[in-house]
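FIELD: query
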Amino acid sequence: MPKGFGIIGCGMISRFHARAINEIKGAKLVACYDHVGAASQRLGKEFGIEYHTDLDAMLQDDRIDVVTICTPSGAHMEPGVAAARRGKHVIVEKPLEITLKRCDKMIAACEKHGVTLATIFPSRFHHCSQLLKKAIDTERFGRLTLGDAYVKWFRTQEYYDSGKWRGTWQLDGGGALMNQAIHSVDLLVWLMGPVEEISAMTATMTHERIEVEDVAVANLKFKSGALGVIEATTTSYPGALKRIEISGNMGSAVLEEEDIKDWQFAEETPEDEKIRQEMAGQTDSGGGAADPSAISHHGHTMVFEEFISSIIEDRPSRIDGHEGRRSVEVIEAIYESAKTGQRVKLA
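FIELD: result
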């Protein structure tokens, strides 16, 4: 079993990784790295671990079997490749990277060096998501007709001003879509299947000094023939819980964060009423709608546990690099459509 963990990048999200690791029986957080010495030192002292400003030095530590990457989004590839070369398994905070080219380089490096790669998409592991996926896979919806994702969040100007990388194409890779809504994009594609065609518009409406969008709307055509919508924003005060809505000619369901808000099927089963009762009121945080730190780390714990199991069982993680790149592919296509004003067909 892989036991030793190292964290690369010591910003806010690294603390969620550290807490998740500390909850896993047999896992041990060994060290952390950040090129900013003060950041590395703060995290190291907070969790009682070694801290580094030299990445190579940390990667040479034989106690470390797995690294988790918490750097800005557009700086995931380089440490991921470096860790793979050292034989370390790699977990990457969402998104996997900000372009398909950079995603593919990291995937190739991990495959070449025989290490496991996974992306942080906790929403797939929530019980409500698992129930919805099972209902789709068993064709309880009949023919899927609509699949929609709504992420109407709020971020202050201070949020974007708090880090030079925020709101930049180079390191954030995009705005409301690539940073905030990517969890919902991943969940929607996991549930509905591959996207075939996209048309979209984006805008920067209320935030200053950012290069990227704070509002985006996209129309989707899935390979199945179903249609869909993605709406994402960081301008919607005070911020609402994210929603996924799935419709078919035999059923409809609505997820709001970890709650099932609607669960209706033409052919009811005895379990349906139990699901409606038990899956209401499951959300115990703000879900990051207004405060990016107002999330629980239990989703990360589930991702790490599945990742460890995949290594022990010698299989790909359920959210491996190839899965991680799917949402990046969709978001890249949305940006291309918004820029060109044309429909974009995915490969």
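FIELD: remark
The CA atoms of residues 73 and 124 lie 20 Å apart.
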